[in-house]
Structure formats: C-alpha cells, structure tokens
Write a structure and sequence with these properties.
The protein is globular. With 197 residues, it is of the alpha/beta class. Helix content is 36%, strand content 23%. Strands 3-2-1-4-5-6-7-8 form an 8-stranded mixed β-sheet, sandwiched between helices. Helix 1 links the parallel strand 1 and strand 2. It contains 6 helices and 8 strands; from the N terminus they run E-H-E-H-E-H-E-H-E-H-E-E-H-E. Its EC number is 2.1.2.2. This is Phosphoribosylglycinamide formyltransferase.
C-alpha cells in the first residue's frame, strides 16, 4: 500500500521539492501535504505548483506556548492522514509531547555528519574544527535534538579555501540526493543505513 507523506517546511522548500519530485512511478510513497509554520515560505507555492495540498500553522500567535502550537499542528497533520512525516527545513524544535505522537514515523535531514554538530551553524563549526570532511544525515526524530537512529549519510571533502557558504551549497546538493533515497527505503519498510556516494 502506498504510504502518505507530509512534509514540514519553514522556507524555500528545496529539500521538499526533491522529495516530492522523487515520489513518482513505482515509489512506495506519495506526498499528501506540505505544511509550513510560515505564511511566506516560498516552498508553499512550489508544492502547490506540483499538485500537493498545502497548509500553514503559524507558531507566532502561540508565543511561548509550544504545546498549544503543536496541538494545532498535530490536528492539521492528522486530517491529512500521513503515514510518514518528513522535516525538511522546519525551523521549530519540537517537544517530546509532539515527537512521541509520531515517533518511528518521522524523519529529519541535518546538515552535518551526526553525531557531530547538532543544532545550528554546522558548516562554520566544521571549518573551525579543522575537519577534512562534512556532509548530511537523515535520521529518525526522537525527543533529543538531532538525535535518533541514523538512516543515511553523505559526505564531501572540505576543500582548501572553503567557506561556510560554499560548503553549505555543496552539502545541500547531497541532501537533495540522500533524503529521497532514504525516504524510498523507509517507506518500503527498510531502515538499514545507507551511505552515499
């Protein structure tokens, strides 16, 4: 049975586009919803242009009440009946209460070779540390930030003269390959880790 996938975004949605465009033909999943916490997210138009339903649950009216925001988020997602949630640049840290409702069915992509550099500014931190390689990780979401079982990684060599911006652009290209590859396997029930290239 084809799995239904909801994708959560906050911005331009480049990873969302790579996921949606991969879910064709014999793929075991299809996108059923793209949801953003930001009315101005450029990815909403991209999703609509690709025939995917969209929704917005703005976090700002809820202030510091994360649970109230997440209750509305959960309700809107439940209406769409997804089997899998994919976080794709969704810039909200989700509480344990929300994650527990979807745990085992929620994926995230992070721009570092976890467990290194959880959180933000991953590329600058890799350069400051003198690392020789960087990359991205797809993992199952657990209540701990950027933690959970690793399902896939892709890496690039850090080049001489690299900046955080150039490294980010190179890693993003890998994200667009890795995330769809992991989702395809995950939707088919295969949770073994893959490494690219």
């Amino acid at each position: 049975m084809t799995k239904r996938v909801a994708i959560l975004i906050s911005g331009s949605g480049s990873n969302m586009v790579s996921l949606v465009e991969s879910m064709t033909g014999d793929h075991p999943a299809r996108a059923c919803l793209v949801l953003s916490n930001n009315h101005d997210a450029g990815g909403l138009r991209k999703a609509a242009d690709r025939g995917v339903d969209t929704a917005v649950v703005d976090h700002r009216p809820y202030g510091e009440d994360r649970a109230a925001f997440e209750d509305i988020l959960h309700a809107r997602l439940t209406e769409a009946r997804p089997d899998i949630l994919c976080l794709a640049g969704f810039m909200r840290v989700l509480t344990e209460g929300f994650v527990s409702r979807w745990q085992g069915r929620m994926l995230n992509i992070h721009p570092s070779l976890l467990p290194k550099y959880r959180g933000l500014n991953t590329h600058a931190r890799a350069l400051q540390a003198g690392d020789t390689k960087a990359g991205c990780t797809v993992h199952e979401v657990t209540p701990a930030l950027d933690d959970g079982p690793i399902l896939g990684q892709a890496e690039v060599a850090i080049e001489a003269g690299e900046t955080a911006e150039t490294l980010a652009a190179r890693v993003l290209e890998l994200e667009h390959i890795l995330y769809p590859a992991v989702l395809r396997r995950f939707a088919a029930g295969d949770r073994r880790m893959i490494t690219l290239p």
